[in-house]
Amino acid sequence: MPLPRPSISDAERAVLKVLWDQGPGTVRQIKQHLREQERRWAHTTVITLLGRLEAKGYVASDKSGFAHVFRATASRDDVVRRQLEHLADEFCEGDAAPLVLALVQGYSFSDKEIEEFRKMIDKLEARRRRKPGK
User: Fold this and answer.
1) Which one-letter DSSP state was computed for residue 64?
2) Nearest to 28 by CA among 47, 13, 14, 9
3) Comparing C-alpha atoms, which of 1, 14, 3, 2 is closest to residue 52?
4) What sign for the dihedral angle of Cα 82, 43, 19, 2?
5) Could you report the per-residue pLDDT of 53-87, keeping only the tens digit for each?
6) What is the distance between the alpha carbons of residues 116 and 114, in angstroms, rounded to a whole number?
7) Residue 57 to residue 59: CA distance in whole angstroms
8) Does residue 48 contact residue 59 with C-beta atoms inside 8 Å?
9) Which residue from 43, 9, 11 is spatially nearest to 26, judged by alpha carbons?
């Protein structure tokens, strides 16, 4: 099992969101998308953040061309899952149930999302029934 990646800062997360939403891009392209989000960071700042993300294993770069092209190597779901595990550990002594309940109670969900929840609960119940002693 691979080692967990280090946590990321809010600024690093903003850069990663651009890569998730827009796909691979050069520093210039990423900087432009950040500018559209009212983040007016210097070119060197974006380079530094991408370098940190690459060192942490969240981003990879293709350096074969004139301009390096960066792409996310961690999915949004993977990062969200890791962040939620961290919150559960920090605030709920590792118990995810209070965190999940707080999330569910605070939002409105579509019929499709509710159906997905039902499928997940059915799978969890089936898995629990298969394990002896539970």
Assistant:
1) S
2) 47
3) 14
4) negative
5) 999 999 999 988 888 999 999 999 999 888 888 88
6) 5
7) 6
8) no
9) 43
Q: Cα–Cα distance between 130 and 134 in angstroms, integer? A: 9
Largest interatomic CA distance in the chain: 60
> What mean pLDDT comes out for the span 21-41?
95
Ramachandran angles phi, psi of 5, nearest 5°: -75, 150
Quick one: DSSP state of residue 57? T
Distance CA 54, CA 60 (A): 6
Residue showing tokens 């350096």? 63
Distance of CA 4 to the CA centre of its chain: 13
* Nearest CA-CA partner of 49 in 65, 33, 36: 33
Q: Which two tokens stand for residue 73?
A: 């190597």
3-state secondary structure 71-117: EECCCHHHHHHHHHHHHHHHHHCCCCHHHHHHHHHCCCCCHHHHHHH
